[in-house]
Specification:
disordered N terminus; 2 domains; 8-stranded mixed beta sheet; 8 strands; alpha/beta
Length: 308
Amino acid sequence: MSARWLTPVAVVVLATFIAVGFVGVDRYGTNYWLYRGFPPPHDPAFVTQRGSVEHISVASQALGGRSQQVYVYLPPGYASHPAKRYPVLYLLHGFPGRPLAFLLTVRMGVVEDALVAEHQAQPLILVMPFGSTGTFTDKEWANGLGPSEGWRTFVSRDVVRAIDANYRTIASRTARGIGGLSEGGYGAINIALHAPKEFSLVESWSGYEVAVHNHSIFGRQLAGLAPNTPLDGLRVSASMLRRLHTYFWVYTGKDDSLRRENRAFASELTAAGIPHTYLELRGGHNWALWRGMAWRSYLVASRRLSHA
């Protein structure tokens, strides 16, 4: 029907219908990006004390003085126990990704609140840095060959120092763990191999151990590739990791194309005599697996990291 045959009222109704439709599509897209098709996180009814989120900026010398967003989840009871200190679990997002995915999609805050309320786990401070200059800009959590591209050092030095200076942490490697999903899992392993004195626990959720061939990060001739490939670099760090009793907790989906890399890395850990757990689980490389395993990931950190 031509618009010139519509009455003014009909035009208004049609315009409203279209506008509402666009709003609905936009809202659906936003909700999907935040929650990946899952319902928004919500604490169970038995939780009476909840954790809280803080958003800070960390100025990083490794990034040429650039300030980066960091989200901090303070455990239940943090404010009401001013003398208590806590272990810290650093969580690295994947690509493309944002740090809040750990709270909005994986529900790590809800998991912590529930496990602490049921006395199944000790409380942790969760630290979630933003590891890029944009959501769709890949940095791999690695030290690139370009100037001010020390993303690995940003985490292991600058973020760790800032968190220990501003929060009641147990400032010791025995109370400090690092983990991540997908690219963040790779980043966690790679950072731990280069900074073994910083973290006693390393968790990789569907990560990988062979650096991607990204020329913008590792150089035109990929000179930075070998130093950032954990599958090869483990042997260099093995004696230090054994001496420090670093523990690796690695899982992957049975339908994940990266499963062979993870299996090979687990074999290298075994050969090197480094304590670890390796799991192959039903599922692929997706949010359903990471969300479903969040409780177990938290429990591992709670039990492995030392407490005051």
